Amino acid sequence: MTPPGFLFCSDPLGPRRPDPGFAGEAAAARRAGARAGLIDHDALLAGDTETAVGRVRRDSGPYWYRGWMIPPDRYADLERALLARGCSLLTGSSAYRTAHELPGWYEAFAQLTPRSVWRALSVGEALPDPSVWSDLAGGLGPGPGIVKDFVKSRKHEWHEACFVPELSEPERLRGVVGRFLELQGEFLAGGVVLRAYEPFVPGGEARVWWVDGEPVRVTAHPDTPGLVPAPALDAVGEAVRALGCRWVTTDMALREDGGWRVVEVGDGQVSGLPAGDDGEGLFGALLDG
């Protein structure tokens, strides 16, 4: 059986080399004994799958993707284009969507993550009557909340487009959701999610990397690279295995009452490492899996 390789994004200014954001990881993958190919991320997003995979050698075996986020529909295009070249992705398009978007992973982690409700909304779709957000928030009850889409929040615009002090106050809720949608624009992923707010202690988030249901690395979150908490993982491991996706990440933080909580789940292929970490140990685990 052909061992797995890794597909990295190519440099838009030099398509024969990895994107600078992943050049160190590509070198680490090769040091770990993996073959490394390149795909054109810009071409993929533009719908030109033939160009996107044009540098992937035909019949070269299975691959993990490692690069910038890809909308699930485009990821499915990538999967089909690689299959046409006699190659495959070790994370299929269904598994990618499951781990990448909150509605896909929420049920498995419902007891370990803030309560959440959501409404699908496509880019370009007419916005619903603003009253829909109050109706949606009713599923969470009163209290503060967070606005995000199926993948990302705008936590750096915390008071403007993320945090709602009281979900039962319609005007404030509508204002935050409206501003969030305005700022996300064409980058809106999946729809709108409302989450109950839970206060966490300072100290950063831990990003736990799971391969085939086992934790293979715990790193800092890219937003807090100098801080690596040590979360309890037993219950999270059960949820990861129930999810059934091969390579995922869980971002974890310590709540003020002392309970470890899953803040976010992600597909490991598009989850970032903290600055200065080339992922060499991670690639070794993926090759052994």
Give me the strand/helix succession.
Answer: EEHEHHEHEHHEHEHEHEEEHEEH
Strand proportion, as a percent range, falls in 15-25%
Number of helices: 11
Low-pLDDT runs of 5+ residues are none
C-alpha termini separation: 13 Å
User: What does the main sheet amount to?
Assistant: 5 strands, mixed
Helix-strand category: alpha+beta
Q: What's the gyration radius in Å?
A: 19 Å
Mean pLDDT: 95
Shape, per Cα inertia axes: globular
Give the fraction of residues assigned to helices.
25-40%
Care to count the β-strands?
Answer: 13
Description:
This protein is α+β, with helices and mostly antiparallel strands. The chain contains eleven helices and 13 strands. The protein has helices spanning 23-31, 41-45, 49-52, 72-84, 93-100, 102-109, 131-137, 158-161, 170-184, 234-243, 280-288; strands at residues 5-11, 14-18, 36-39, 61-66, 87-89, 116-120, 145-148, 163-164, 191-196, 206-211, 214-220, 247-254, 260-267. The two termini are 13 Å apart. The relative contact order is 0.14.
Task: Give a brief rundown of this model.
With 289 residues, this protein is α+β, with helices and mostly antiparallel strands.
Structure characteristics:
4-stranded antiparallel sheet, 25% strand, 11 helices, globular, 5-stranded mixed sheet, 289 residues, alpha+beta, 13 strands, single chain
Q: What's the topology here?
A:
Layout: E1 5-11, E2 14-18, H1 23-31, E3 36-39, H2 41-45, H3 49-52, E4 61-66, H4 72-84, E5 87-89, H5 93-100, H6 102-109, E6 116-120, H7 131-137, E7 145-148, H8 158-161, E8 163-164, H9 170-184, E9 191-196, E10 206-211, E11 214-220, H10 234-243, E12 247-254, E13 260-267, H11 280-288
Parallel strand pairs: 1-3, 1-4, 4-5
Antiparallel strand pairs: 1-2, 6-9, 7-8, 7-9, 10-11, 10-12, 12-13
Helix pairs in contact: 4-5, 5-6
